[in-house]
Amino acid sequence: MVLAAVGYLPMLFFLPLFLVRADPFAKFHGKQSLVIQVALFVFWIAVWISDFLLGRVLGGMLILGFIFKVFAWLIHYPAGLVVSLGYVVIAILGIVQSLAGQYWRIPVVGAYADRLAF
Fold it and tell me: Of 13, 21, 27, 22, which Cα lies nearest the Cα of 90?
């Protein structure tokens, strides 16, 4: 149970997946953590790309540049804060549920985690 909980910490999803291959409980939580962390990584890559394109490239335009910089700021800071706080809440819930011995399926994420073949 402890190893399943540790898997929800950032970048430690591989511990329950590869250290205890025979434990279905640890693998269940490890796969969910993997899906969450990959989704967070993809989100931040998209934020940095949009920040570069909107803020740096299109933000240099004379009249519309300010509007593009505002959109880049809105994507980067408020949206990034909401998604990051959501990740922290889900990770804490996952840790609590795994320490309680519960098979807690995270909405939406659980369906993608079930498709992983580990």
Answer: 13
